[in-house]
Structure formats: C-alpha cells, structure tokens
Design brief:
Belongs to the LysR transcriptional regulatory family. It comes from Neoroseomonas soli. InterPro entries: LysR_HTH_N, LysR_subst-bd, WH-like_DNA-bd_sf, WH_DNA-bd_sf. Residues 1-58 form the HTH lysR-type domain. This is LysR family transcriptional regulator. The chain has helices at 3-15, 18-25, 29-43, 59-86, 99-116, 129-137, 174-177, 200-211, 225-233, 243-251, 281-292; strands at 48-51, 54-57, 91-98, 120-127, 143-146, 155-169, 182-183, 191-195, 218-222, 239-242, 256-258, 260-261, 265-274. With 309 residues, it is of the alpha/beta class. The protein has three domains: 3-74, Arc Repressor Mutant, subunit A (Orthogonal Bundle); 85-161 and 268-292, Periplasmic binding protein-like II (D-Maltodextrin-Binding Protein, domain 2), CATH 3.40.190.10; 164-265, D-Maltodextrin-Binding Protein, domain 2. The strands form four sheets. Strands 3, 4, 5, 6, 10, 11 and 13 form a seven-stranded mixed β-sheet that branches. Strands 1-2 form a two-stranded antiparallel ribbon. Helix 1 crosses helix 2, helix 1 (3-15) crosses helix 3 and helix 1 crosses helix 4 (59-86).
Length: 309
C-alpha cells in the first residue's frame, strides 16, 4: 500500500472534504482527488461516496480510515521518540486548547515558557473541545487542554485545575439590580446566552440546568465567549461563563455577577493525551509548567457564586 496515497485519503476522510484536505496538505485539490482514485484502484474498492450532499465513507473506507489513524499514530510516535532521544533544543510546540482556556488561562503560561525556552516556536490552536480532541488524535497537536467532557476512549483525561462559572448580567439588568442572591430558577424567565454545540462550556451549562429541571425562556447561541459578553453587556440576556473570562469586564463595571442561592457551578480543565505517545522535550517542559501552576486565582473579588446566600 502506498503510504503517500493513504495519507491523502486520511486527510480527506478526516475532513470530509477534498478542498480542506488539499489546504491542510498544501497541495492542489486535483492532486488529492487523483491520489484517492489511485488508491481505490490499487485496493479494488471504492473508499468514498461522492454526491451532492458531500463526501461519505464507504464500508471499506471506514475500515481503512481506522487503520490509517493507527499507522500514522505509530509513525508520529517513532518520530517523537527519536527526537526525544536526540534531546532537541529547538523545535515547535503545538498546543491546542478550548476557547476559554486559550483566551484567558494559557497566555501567562505561554509567556513563562517562552522566557525559559525562547528557541522553541510556539503554536496555539483555539477551538471547541471536540475539535481540539480530534486534532490531538490526528497528531496535529503535542498537548491539549479542554474545558468540556471528552468521551473518546483513545484519549486519556487528566484533571489540571478547577474553574468557577458565574452568572453575568449587564449592570442595568433586573437581576443585577436585585439585592442578595437569587434562586437559579430565575433563569426560567430569562434569555440565556450560550455557546454553540460542541463547546465544553455549553455542555456543562446544559447539564447543570437539566439536573435542576430548568428550561430558560429562550436560548441564544453565540460562537465565542467574547461575543457572549458583548451580547450580555448589550442587555439582551444573561450567561453562565468562566469567572476568569468575565474578570476584566467586571472590574471595569461593564458586567456584574448575579449571585446565586444554593447553586455552585464549577468544572475541571483537563489535559488530554494519547496513550503510549512519547512527548517531545518541549512538550515535557510545558507539561512540567502546567503541573507547577495547577490553579489560578480569579482576578476580581466576589466572582464565585454564593452557595448559601
């Protein structure tokens, strides 16, 4: 089996798109299409179904895609172990993080790492939890930290630190003007601003509210935490977001925390790893930095919800 052609097929299968695969591989789309056709001819089986609705894997394609992931994972492990034995002092460290972690938690750690290892090129990818997990499995990341649940058995999940989530509102919002903590049931009367499906934050909020039997009057999906804050500041609704993410706007008086009675929402930030994968020296050094700084304090007073009122 031609591994070059297999790599082309793997890129298409993973992205369900010839054009996105070509972009990721830095080659032309016709070259990708030709390579997949050659592989299908070699194997004597169609691997992809091409139609108006897009690209789908055939049964043979699904089988081959699973083996391709294993093959390229082994290839990546071999390269990384050899690099570790050489004791590289230069190179690239590719870190992936879900949006809240990448935006509000990792920057100080990246700065500390850069000061200690200025010769290592840093690359930070920010996406939702599902996307980051997929990139790590595809060997496109060295380290990954996410904020949401991960169900893939191929990944090991290690708790890194805890994050408090708080209910925020515009200063003039009726909940922000109330004195003392409010019951979580008030959300049944509100417009709740939430993240898109696949977001770790969104899944955690949905699960917590479902456990309380609370259905907000309306939910408005927004594609980033920064956008959520802007929508809340405009007075459209309220949101449950990371205390770290809200700290700056709260300190400036642009947002207020609505204290909740008998309700505390916390979640874990988790480090993901692939079983048996040897980390590069740079990745091991950054992992040591994570272990040395497992918990960051909220940057503004009074950010945590009050469980007792």
């Amino acid at each position: 089996m031609n591994l070059h052609l297999l790599r082309l097929f793997d890129a298409v299968a993973g992205r369900a798109s010839f054009s996105r695969a070509a972009e990721a591989l830095h080659i032309s789309q016709p070259a990708v299409s030709k390579g997949v056709r050659e592989l299908e001819a070699q194997l004597g089986s169609p691997l992809l179904e091409r139609g108006p609705g897009g690209i789908r894997l055939t049964e043979a394609g699904r089988v081959l895609a699973g083996h391709a992931r294993t093959i390229f994972a082994a290839e990546g492990s071999a390269e990384e172990e050899l690099a570790a034995l050489r004791g590289l002092t230069r190179g690239v460290l590719r870190i992936g993080a879900s949006t809240t972690v990448a935006t509000y938690v990792l920057p100080p750690l990246l700065g500390a790492f850069h000061r200690s290892h200025p010769q290592v090129e840093l690359r930070l990818t920010s996406a939702n939890t599902r996307a980051i997990a997929d990139l790590l499995l595809r060997r496109e990341l060295d380290l990954a930290i996410v904020e949401g649940p991960v169900g893939d058995p191929s990944l090991q999940v290690t708790r890194w630190r805890e994050d408090a989530m708080v209910l925020i509102a515009a200063p003039a919002h009726r909940l922000a003007l109330r004195k003392g903590p409010v019951p979580i049931t008030v959300l049944a009367e509100e417009i709740l601003i939430v993240r898109e499906p696949g977001s770790g934050s969104g899944e955690i909020v949905d699960t917590a509210l479902a456990a309380k039997g609370i259905v907000p009057r309306q939910q408005l999906e927004v594609g980033s935490t920064e956008a959520i804050k802007q929508v809340v500041m405009a007075g459209v609704g309220v949101a449950l977001i990371s205390a770290d993410a809200a700290a700056d706007q709260i300190a400036l008086g642009k947002l207020r925390v609505v204290r909740l009675r008998d309700f505390v929402l916390r979640r874990d930030f988790n480090r993901l790893s692939v079983a048996g994968r040897q980390l590069s020296p740079a990745a091991m050094a950054f992992q040591g930095l994570l272990a040395a700084r497992p918990r960051a304090k909220a940057r503004a007073a009074g950010l945590r919800s009050d469980p007792k009122g």
